[in-house]
Amino acid sequence: MDEHHWINSTEPFATAAAATTTTTTKPLLPFSRLLISGGAAVLVASETCRRGRLLLLCPSASTASPAFCEAFEMEKGKDSRNTFISTLGNFARKCLFGILSVGPIPDHIAFIMDGNRRYAKRRDLEKEAGHKLGFAALMSILRYCYELNVKYVTIYAFSIDNFKRCPEEVKSLMELIREKIEGLIREESIVNQYGIRVHFIGDLELLDEPVRLSAERVMAATAGNTRSVLSVCIAYTSTNEIVNAVHLACEEKWDEFRILDSCGGAYGLTRYVGNGENGENFIGLEDIERHMYMKVAPAPDIVIRTSGETRLSNFLLWQSGHSLLYSPSALWPEIGLRHLVCAILNFQRDRSYMEKKKKIL
Amino acid sequence: MDGLVSSLLLLLLLLLFGGVTSIWPYQSLKFWSKILRLISRLSNQSPNNTALGSDGFPEQLRRELMPRHVAVILDGNRRWAKEKGLTFIEGYRAGFVAFRVFVGICVQWDIPIVSLFLFSSENWRRPQISLRTYLHASRSNRETNSEIPELGVRVSVIGDTCSLPISLQELIKETEKETEKGTKCHLILAMSYGGQNDIVQACQGIATKVKHGFLEPEDITRPLVEQELQTRVTNVPSPDLLIRTSGELRISNYYLWQSAYTEMYFTTTYWPDFDRGEFIEALLSFQQRGRHFGRN
């Protein structure tokens, strides 16, 4: 039993049942129940077939790695092959999302994409290949999230601490990021398909010129989209975000104060907050939140970190005070529909418990 | 191949379960989930290997990998009491017994800093009766904690203590003064504490300094913010390990800034049942993790 995997493998089904029990208000007819369980079974069957094909294609020799990458990307990417299984899989997935939507769906899910390099090492691939496979997994997860009508998705792409890694790795990672950012503006990308507005969150001054320019281009190009929001945290740490917000809040108040002081009207700015001292506390919670990079999205409902590690690594510290933390032991390229569904079922079970608790409170 | 096998097993289980739900009404599913939760709780209570060495230090743990700062969210007193059919106040009393045992273990195993989250700033929204029982229990237990100075423990209390009753505030000041010289362990109790409030009050302190000309806005850096947070009472404000009991998977506005790189450990045991064996499990899990701080 993997100690990092808090949720036992048999529990998801109990939570599935409990969640749908507590959240559904009208009982379903026996025939529809059979249909739903049949649909779910077909979905699992199609995912099993996919994984079986992938595993058959996976040799341990690194010379076959490009073929593996291609096959992986094809499996995870858009189902351009009109096979019976993939159409059935899509239909079953829609059924499953319909069932899940009976209960509360989170507004905002955050992902910490951990485990690309470990996955590459396990499959005897290069580290860059691991990151490419991670990107393919990201696209499929985003697709599932937006099909489920999750309005805000945040991903932790690159931390300021990651700049301390070896320079070749950072350079290749930046190149990959730039290439994928450019891919977002293309016509057939997921951004246009689902009307996603993209924000790049973090200290963009720390990035190289080409990456920063492509990021700004994408932000401008998608500024008109309103259906959903994707926040990509790049050159980001939460402590940096908070310090920056404090900095800006102080500057703003300092400017206001200077202007008022110069025309003799400073005395109205001091506000006494009852903490026992006569403090001139003129910065509050709202002032700091207004200057945060993440003001474009509400607080996350679920924070999912793959590879079984249970830490936040300086990601959304301010915002995740009340978020559910979910940590499957799968590595990021291995993440699939079942992990997302488990997370949402846990959220629904948690949400009904929190509602009950709030009623008692 | 193992992925294929597990997927097939999942499929079989799903078909079985799907078949069953088609026949039985939905109400029976609540019963199923209760059974499964009971089974998992029973399996968690299997006897742990709590073998201790001659100096009282557990054999499976390595001294050089022990965390310097352990933070714990003491959750589940009321749920524990409800399960046992006791009142809330008895639940809190059991919680304080567990707290005393825990502090004793930390002193024995030389953990220099221990933070405990007793009371959140959000808990003020609870009904008055619950608050009164909690504060009464904490006061009476604090008074009987005469053995804490003898253990060499230094106690600090962080949080918005001004909103607590006056008698409790005075007791806190007394305890802090008495235990100032303690060197074995630094116990930080968070009462009426909120992570976001902590950061805001640090910002207010910085803003006041900027306003009075002691600082320029450009001087605001990460170490400066850390110096202004309430955890400045210690020189290691960031916990290495954060333990939360009772199965909730969240931080609930406890240490936010400080827990940037903290390893988190969640357990479904309620706080009154959190004993030496459970703590060894948590520390074992911590010692097996690779901490990179984003660097590699």
Automatic annotation (TrEMBL), chain A:
<dbReference type="InterPro" id="IPR018520">
    <property type="entry name" value="UPP_synth-like_CS"/>
</dbReference>
<protein>
    <recommendedName>
        <fullName>Alkyl transferase</fullName>
        <ecNumber>2.5.1.-</ecNumber>
    </recommendedName>
</protein>
<dbReference type="GO" id="GO:0045547">
    <property type="term" value="F:ditrans,polycis-polyprenyl diphosphate synthase [(2E,6E)-farnesyl diphosphate specific] activity"/>
</dbReference>
<dbReference type="GO" id="GO:0005783">
    <property type="term" value="C:endoplasmic reticulum"/>
</dbReference>
<dbReference type="Pfam" id="PF01255">
    <property type="entry name" value="Prenyltransf"/>
</dbReference>
<keyword id="KW-0808">Transferase</keyword>
<comment type="similarity">
    <text>Belongs to the UPP synthase family.</text>
</comment>
<dbReference type="InterPro" id="IPR036424">
    <property type="entry name" value="UPP_synth-like_sf"/>
</dbReference>
<dbReference type="InterPro" id="IPR001441">
    <property type="entry name" value="UPP_synth-like"/>
</dbReference>
<dbReference type="GO" id="GO:0016094">
    <property type="term" value="P:polyprenol biosynthetic process"/>
</dbReference>
From TrEMBL, chain B:
<keyword id="KW-0732">Signal</keyword>
<keyword id="KW-0808">Transferase</keyword>
<protein>
    <recommendedName>
        <fullName>Alkyl transferase</fullName>
        <ecNumber>2.5.1.-</ecNumber>
    </recommendedName>
</protein>
<dbReference type="InterPro" id="IPR036424">
    <property type="entry name" value="UPP_synth-like_sf"/>
</dbReference>
<dbReference type="GO" id="GO:0009570">
    <property type="term" value="C:chloroplast stroma"/>
</dbReference>
<dbReference type="GO" id="GO:0016094">
    <property type="term" value="P:polyprenol biosynthetic process"/>
</dbReference>
<dbReference type="Pfam" id="PF01255">
    <property type="entry name" value="Prenyltransf"/>
</dbReference>
<dbReference type="GO" id="GO:0009409">
    <property type="term" value="P:response to cold"/>
</dbReference>
<dbReference type="GO" id="GO:0009668">
    <property type="term" value="P:plastid membrane organization"/>
</dbReference>
<feature type="signal peptide">
    <location>
        <begin position="1"/>
        <end position="22"/>
    </location>
</feature>
<dbReference type="GO" id="GO:0045547">
    <property type="term" value="F:ditrans,polycis-polyprenyl diphosphate synthase [(2E,6E)-farnesyl diphosphate specific] activity"/>
</dbReference>
<comment type="similarity">
    <text>Belongs to the UPP synthase family.</text>
</comment>
<dbReference type="InterPro" id="IPR001441">
    <property type="entry name" value="UPP_synth-like"/>
</dbReference>
